[in-house]
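Homework help thread (please don't just give me the answer)

Our assignment gives two proteins as sequence + structure token strings and asks us to describe the second one. The first is just a warm-up. Here they are:
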Amino acid sequence: LRWKHVAEVKETSILPMLTVDMENKENGSLDVKNSVENGRPPDPADWAVIDVVNYFRTAGFEEQANAFQEQEIDGKSLLLMTRNDVLTGLSLKLGPALKIYEYHVKPLQTQHLKNNSL
């Protein structure tokens, strides 16, 4: 019983700053809400390279986040990335690269376009 309790405590404390709303997402992606708490500007276009890196670390892509640092991907670059850029330009494994593009890069681009077309 002791071991089980330790595992449960660990699970709940993994992402303390992440607000997750999974109710209206059918595709299984997490809706990560930006806030002042996470230290990043709300608009990804204003993110520095370290903000992009921290975004992907917080989203659970610890290993892959380094590729964004190595390639000096800031917020403006992130918003310009194509599917092909993410799949081939970052030298990532295909599985994580697909998730990064579909569940993070593409939604950030869509949200940015919506917010800036008003």
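The one we have to describe:
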Amino acid sequence: MKRVDLIKEIAAEFELIANRLSETEVATVASVVELEPQHLAEIAKLAQKLTGPKNVKLKTVIDKSLLAGIIIRIIEEFGALFIKARICPSKGGDRFQL
């Protein structure tokens, strides 16, 4: 069992190094339900705009403790950025409102 835990730690460290080398920022998106691909694409664009010219990789988490909306967590080298948003219907489709 200890070997399995060690492999998980090695994989996590490898992912951190690979992301750093490829200038990829990982953003965690928490929501009550699974988000549609178009919503994830819009979130990725927003995260990329906030982090600069870096690539963005999204990890999604279902969080049943949320009542509505989403929480986006972006960790950069010198701090963290938390964004709370909600999905609002509009003429051109659903949009996020921060």
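TA reply:
I won't write it for you, but here's a hint about the kind of observation we're looking for: The helical segments are 2-21, 37-51.
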